[in-house]
Amino acid sequence: MRRFGIDIEVQCVPPLDTDFIPMAQFDRAFLRTARHGLTVAVERADGQRALKRTRIHGTEQMREADHYYIDRLVKNLLWTKGGFRIYTDDKAVYDYLKNAYCVGGSRAFDAQFMSEVYERPFEVIWTDVMPQEKHTSQAVGGHWEGCRIGFDAGGSDRKVSAVKDGAVVFSEEAVWFPKEQADPAYHYEGIVSALQSAAAHLPRVDAVGISSAGVFVNDRTMVSSLFRKVPRAEYDRRVKNIYLRAVHDTFGDIPCRVVNDGDVSALCGAMSLQEKNILGIAMGTSEAAGFVDGDGCITGWLNELAFAPVDAAGGTAVDEWSGDRGCGGSYFSQEAVIRLAQRAGVVWAENLPSAEKLKTVQSLMAQDDPRAVQVYESIGVYLGHTLAYYAESYACRYVLLLGRVMSGKGGDLIVKTAKNVLQREYPALADTIQPVLPDENFRRVGQAVAAASLPK
Q1: How many whole angstroms separate alpha carbon 327 and alpha carbon 107?
Q2: Alpha-carbon distance 57 to 5, whole Å?
Q3: Pick from 402, 397, 399: nearest CA to 439
Q4: pLDDT at 144
Q5: What residue ranges of the chain have pLDDT lower than 70?
Q6: What is the 3-state secondary structure (H, E, C) of 293-337?
Q7: What is the pLDDT of residue 445?
Q8: Which 3 state secondary structure label does DSSP give 447?
Q9: Do the beta carbons of residue 36 and residue 55 sit within 8 Å?
C-alpha cells in the first residue's frame, strides 16, 4: 500500500475493506524516513497537559505526508487527552495548525468542540520552551451500600438498573431516539421514566449514578451527541444540567454523579476483572471509551475515541457530526456493522431502524451466515490494528469490550480476530494487551450497573 509517497506493509486486511490502512502501520512507515525533530502538546482548562515528541521530514517533497501525519497526530492527542490549546516548537507546523484550527479551517469542528467543552477560546501557540507534561487522576465508583439506581444513556437505547447493597434487583432496556429530537423535554421525560421504573423495585433511592455519551464537567453536560439537535440557547438552559435536574425533581436532594460512558465501561472492566490499567471500549451507536489507570482511577482525559483516527486511507464513511473520515465512530459501532453488511450483500426492508438492522446481522451471525462472519472478521481486523495505535496513548493491560455490537457470537469473533492480528503484526504487544469480554448480560447492561456505584 502507498499513501502520500509512504510505502506501508499490511498483512492482515479486513475482508470487506481491502483499502484499509491502519494508523499504527502508517505511522511506523512514516517515521522510518523522518529525521526532523518536532514536539507538540495539548492543554486542558484544569492545567493538565499531554506532550508528544516525534519526527517529521521537514522537506518540500514530503510536505503533504508531513501535514497528514501532523493532522492525525494532533487530532489523536486532542480527542484522547482533550485540550483547548495546542503548543508546538516548529514555526511551519504552527502555521499549518493555525490555519486548520480556525473558523473555516479543516479542523473547525474540533476547535469549536474543544472550545465549548472547556469554555475557553481555542488557541495554537508557537514556543521555543515547551510546557511540561502534567496528569492527575481521581477515584470514582465502587460504592455499593444502600439502594441505588444506575442509568446508561446511549444513542439508540437507554438502560437502567436498580441495585440494593450491591445486588442487582432490576434491569431494563428501552429504545429511544435522542439524536433526532430538538426538544429537550423528550430527553428529560425519557430519563425520568427510566429512573421511576427502577425506583419501583427499591424501598427507597439513596443515590443515582449516570453513564452517558458526552463530555461532563462537574456533572454538567458540556457537549453530547445525544442532544445535538437541541438549539444552542435551549442547550445551555435545559441540557447542561439535565441529569442533575431529572434526579433532583424525581428523588429530591440525593447524591448524583454523571460520568462519560466510556469511563464507566472501563470501571466495568475494573469491577469485572478485578484488575487495573484497563481501557474500556463500548461499541454501540458510536464508539465510547474510558481508561482506568494503574491506581484504579479515571484520568480526566477526554477519551472520545469516536473522533480519533483509525484509517489512514480515509475510507468511504464520513462521520455525520464532524465531517471527518477514517475515525473510530465509523469503525467500531452499529454503523460499521450496517455498512459492512451492505457490502457483504445483506438487504433490509425499507426504513428499518439501525438498531433493527444490527439485530438482523446478529441473527445471521448466530446461524454462521458467511456474510455476517465477514462483517465481524472485518471489525476484528480493524480492532487488532487500532489497539496497537491506542497503545501509544494508553498504558493498558486489558481492553474490555462492551456494547450492542459485541453481543453474541459476533463479539466473540471480533475478539478472536483482533488477537490474531496483534500476534501476526504486533507480536511485541500481543502478550501485553488482552482484549476481553464480560459475560453476555454484562456486555449489554453492565454500564448501568457500574453507574449505580458512582456516587458516594
Answers
A1: 14
A2: 12
A3: 402
A4: 93
A5: 439-445
A6: CCCCCECCCCCCHHHCECECCCCCCECCCCCCECEHHHCCCHHHH
A7: 52
A8: helix
A9: yes
Q: Do residues 75 and 308 lie in contact, with contact meaning Cβ atoms separated by under 8 Å? A: yes
d(CA 17, CA 380): 12
> Which residues, listed in sequence order, are joined to residue 258 by a DSSP beta bridge?
210
- Cβ-proximal residues to 200 (8 Å cutoff; 6+ apart), any chain: none
Cβ proximity of 454 and 143 under 8 Å: yes
Q: What is the residue whose three cell numbers read 421511576?
A: 196
Q: What is the pLDDT of residues 313-338, one digit of tens each?
A: 987 788 888 999 999 999 999 999 99
Report the pLDDT value the prediction gives residue 443, as an integer from 0 to 100. Answer: 54
- This model's pTM is above 0.70: yes
Q: What is the pLDDT of residue 440?
A: 58
What are phi and psi for residue 168, nearest 5 degrees? -80, 120
Residue type, 381: V
- In 3D space, the residue among 298, 365, 314 whose CA is nearest the CA of residue 72 turns out to be 314
Q: CA-to-CA distance for 453 and 60, rounded, in angstroms?
A: 55
Residue 62: count other Cβ atoms within 10 Å of its Cβ.
19
For residue 164, give the H/E element and its range. Answer: strand 157-164
CA 325/CA 306 separation, integer angstroms: 11
**Pairing mode, strands 256-260 and 207-212:** parallel
Burial 346-376 (b: 16+ CB within 10 A, else e): beeeeeeebbebbbbbbebbeeebebbbbbb
- Residue keyed to cell 514530503: 62
Which pLDDT tens digit goes with each residue over 44-89? 988 899 999 999 999 999 999 999 999 999 999 999 999 999 999 9
Element (H, E) at 421: helix 408-425
Place of cell 445486588: 167
How many Å apart are CA 309 and CA 71, to the nearest integer? 10
List, as one string, the DSSP characters of 111-151: HHHHHHHHTS--EEEE-SSPPPPB---B-------SEEEEE
